[in-house]
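I hope you will forgive my troubling you with a question about protein structure. I set the record out below, with my sincere thanks for your time.
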Amino acid sequence: MKDLIIIGAGPAGLAASIYGIRAGLDLVMLEKFSPGGQVMNTFEIENYPGFVEPVTGWELMAKMEEQAKRLGVTVENGDVASFQRDGNTGKFLIRLTDNRVMEAGSVILATGAAFRKLGVPGEEEFTGRGVSYCATCDGAFFRDKVTAVVGGGDVALEEAFFLTRFASKVYLIHRRDQFRGAKILQDRVLSSDRIVPVYDNIVESINGNSSVSSLTLKNKKSGGLSELDVDGVFIFIGYTPNTGYVPAELLNDSGEVIVDMDMKTGIEGLFAAGDMRSGSRRQIVMAAADGATAALNAYDYIISTQ
């Protein structure tokens, strides 16, 4: 049995592992795919403290992973199906999708969030054939082509600007009359001669035959429909918490794990950190801080039960 099991190896999970291992806890970190989380898909990060110049997402997360492993953190591949706490012993039993069962005295949930989908006709059909949720991954496929980005937050603005490295034109479609991303990002995209803002519009459908050829847009003010010819569309409209394995009584109406300022959930010894928890601002530095907070409080909990 482990002192602590951390589920998820994004910035929250990695930070938790670093603080936990340095506190002397016997811990393991479970990750469904590979360490790094959604940050791995981010081209450049310029607001993470300590980096004078922008750093790529994969480089930042690789350094976090290397740091954790240097300190002795073990990362195991595993997809969690469910977990429960034994009311008599206080131990957590974690069942994986391959039917393995692991035990721990405390658990930190740090499985982050996935990109939210539009839910419109054509989205599923053309995913991988013109529909993408990662400009860093797929931008090079659209060299000298016309693309669209849907969204108005920081990620949408960052990814739209990144696409100008390849695409001849980038339509930036937002449902409101102004973007909501940071001013520095708004200034950057609005000064680009390759980015065309399309305000007050939502995507009604994604159209094509073998691949994306156009979008049907609806103007929110007039209600009118229009066709926009594009070769691809990148969707950045927020996130859905990866909490499908978490009991419903621990979640809020948005599917996020409810926590207090110490990252404590409604179950003693269970903590949640990062993009999956209530009140998250979806920032890397904040996720890392969540992880550190959760690990320190998990340590206090474990010590109190020994």
In short: The radius of gyration is 21 Å. Helices lie at 11-22, 57-70, 135-138, 154-163, 183-190, 284-305.
